[in-house]
Amino acid sequence: MNAKSTEKEIEQQAIDKKLDAALPSEEGNPKSHGEILKQQIIDGQETYDKKPISILLSSLTAGLEIGFSYLLLCTLYSFLLGKVQEDTIFKVMSFVYPIGFIMVILGQSILFTEQTSLLTLPVLNKKRSVGSLLKLWSLVILGNLVGGCFMAFIMVWIGPKLGIFNVQSIEAIAVHVSHYATSVILVSAILAGWLMGLLSWLIAASRDTLSRIAIIYMITTVLAFAGLHHSIVGNVEVFAGFISSPKITGMDYVAFESVSLVGNALGGAVFVALLKYRAFVYDVK
Question: Strand runs (DSSP E) across the chain, as ranges?
Fold first, then answer.
């Protein structure tokens, strides 16, 4: 064992010792940085310890549940179309956008963007490997996308049958989400992933359900109002457009989804997990 390896081990031991010393704060007082980080690492490791089938089913459930946001988006768009300008409709839609997120997060289903930074922290803390992270991400993404695509099929069928929205509404939303240049979608998705990672951190900092609902609503409304690209909701939006409109091709869907997934992952892993963790580490040195 060389000196450099020994130095890294000593540094890791100091970090772990500092995290272990982060005791729960008193009721009514805000949680410390170390307390939140410790909780996030523990929560992340618990996800790693789950069986693959459990992770897949939980992420599939999240993909299905997030579809209720899409149901409200389409219904509201159709309801307001012709009554107000279209650009106003897309802004108003941001106020119903959070509903699916509230269902998913409070229901403890595994949503890729909300879990990105959470699952990265155990890797940064040397408790899990990069390979295990990529494997876990793959399972979560697969479940989220399959669930979302299934909901897209349901929405495309049930909307016109109930008369709450039509194919034109589905098409308009899909085009609105996907018509940007690749570079724009990438940067937008990074910002969205950043916000979702921050959402996970803020939820860990909160103490009660009402606070968590308020945080989820605030963050996801900002995301939607700014038009940032979320890979899992966007999956439902663009896939629904692909199966119902000639304006969205298979390549449009694949390009959008791959770029938004990469952007969301970078936003959560780098701008939340890495920065929050390194801020703690530098305080230990």
Answer: none
**Each residue's pLDDT tens digit, 218-276:** 999 999 999 999 999 999 999 999 999 999 999 999 999 999 999 999 999 999 999 99
Structure-token pair, residue 63: 């993909």
pLDDT value, residue 3: 63
CATH 1.20.1080.10 fits 32-284, yes or no: yes
> Domain-by-domain residue ranges, the chain?
32-284
Q: Which residues contact 4 (CB under 8 A, 6 or more apart)?
A: none
Phi and psi at 146, nearest 5°, equal -65, -45
Q: Phi/psi at 183 (nearest 5 deg)?
A: -65, -35
Q: Are 56 and 143 in contact (CB under 8 A)?
A: yes
Rounded Cα distance between 33 and 277, Å, is 9
Q: Which of 163, 105, 165, 114 is nearest to 140 (CA)?
A: 114
How many angstroms separate the CA atoms of 224 and 220, rounded? Answer: 6
Residues near 220 by beta carbon (within 8 Å), at least 6 away in sequence: 97, 98, 101, 199
Token pair of 56 as six digits: 């897949």
Token output for 249: 């091709």
Over residues 196-216, mean pLDDT: 96
Quick one: pLDDT at residue 1? Answer: 55
Strand ranges (E), 57-152? none
- Say if pTM beats, i.e. exceeds, 0.90: yes
Determine the residue type at 71: L
3-state class of 235 per DSSP? helix
- Tokens (6 digits) for 178: 């996907």
Q: Can you tell me the distance from the alpha carbon of 87 to that of 23, in angstroms, rounded to the nearest whole number?
A: 49
The reported pLDDT for the residue numbered 128 is 97
| CB-based contact 34:18 (threshold 8 Å) | yes
